[in-house]
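Kindly review these tokens for lecture notes.

. . .
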Amino acid sequence: MNKVRTRIAPSPTGDPHVGTAYIALFNRCFAHQHGGEFVLRIEDTDQQRSTDKSEQDILSSLKWLGLSWDEGPGCEGDAGPYRQSERSEIYSNHIQQLLDNGSAFRCFCTSERLDELRKQQMQDKAQPGYDGHCLKLSQQQCESKCAAAQPHVIRMKIPDSGECEFTDMLRGKVSIAWSQVDMQVLIKSDGMPTYHFANVVDDHLMEISHVIRGEEWINSTPKHILLYQYFGWQAPEFCHMPLLRNPDKSKLSKRKNPTSIGYYEAMGYLPEALLNYLGMMGWTMPSGEEKFFLSEMEANFDISRVSLGGPIFDIEKLDWLNGKYIREELTDAEFTKRFAAWAFAPEKVAQIVPLLKQRVERFSDVASLGSFFIDGSLEISETSFAHKAIDSSQAAKILQFTLWKLEALEKLGRDGIEGELQALAAKFELKIKDFLFPLFVALSGKAVSTSVIESIVILGIDITRARIRQAILVLGGISKKQAKALEKEFRNF
């Protein structure tokens, strides 16, 4: 085996996901077990959604977990730069190679034509995908359209027949018919590469030997292998890991489980416990021991021991393991130090103090008024939501609509939250005080508390989401049938 190099390539378009940490962990363990290198690359080609804050959150979360990288941002090597937004010239040079050798073509189809095409394919129950319309254009026609600055993308050509065969490290031989593979856009109309193009170019130039990623990318692998062939490059080994699952076996999602690494940090989990738990996702130590450190996992790692059965991300099991770490690994002094750093982090206290200061008469009032900022789940019951103007079903509806509104906000800024809540209250034809009552209870466990808006900003979307979900369950829950009806009503609100 040549030198092993693996990578993780998150997109900075939201909160750092535990799934990212899970894949990063297995990539690092595989590389280090073989004496290789683990690379971090930031895939920020989506310029509209990518943010510097999201990138910094990703880097901070991985560092908090102890998942340092051998090469990447802040640890530069010869293969950089490690942000795709800084590699535009590289992509321009390489896409020209594909245009020159006839492996790619310019597509001038409008969004309207593509929408109509999709509608027709759905009506005909045909395989969705691009129909090759612009393949018929002559070179002269393409040059004329380019000279007129007509917007276009660059797509890859796909074989007309046959199938793509490749070997997956966990799944063995995989065959996918070329008829199932779309003529993928490689370069968008803004000149930025898509994931499919950039990741192949970057993996080759960064000498990535093994691509270890989630199984959702299996169907995209033929496109990537074909690009390697078009360039005349040797493809890396592919390994598609099973996806993390909710207890009901559905794909791990923020609507059913907290998915942000920041949530687990904010809830007071130990990073080594969370990392240990992620290591248990579809893999076991040879000894069967459930509690192990990163160094032990790296020393004993064998990717062939990964199970393809969807690993269940069970919060109760994580709680058990975290408690085990607290009791077995922390001295009283270390416990005190870590608890104080978590509960009284200066940036957290600085946010909370202005809210509490205006409402307390003495320091002893702080605990009762502000304890919900560091509480896990709150002790609430259906009677906690008793209100003269709102019954329990309306309270649940208010909470669900608020949750959907908050999830749609790009960032939880005070003004944005206030505007959305004011608008919702008006739609419900309720005074803002009455409308906010269920939220006071859901977030603080109390009928009266600090500002709902400020509390949401401080708690963050993941803890806010978890508490609202808990409150809805306390109020009797929302069935699938009810949820479908509510979603329809919400869209028309």
Q: What stands out?
A: The mean pLDDT is 92.
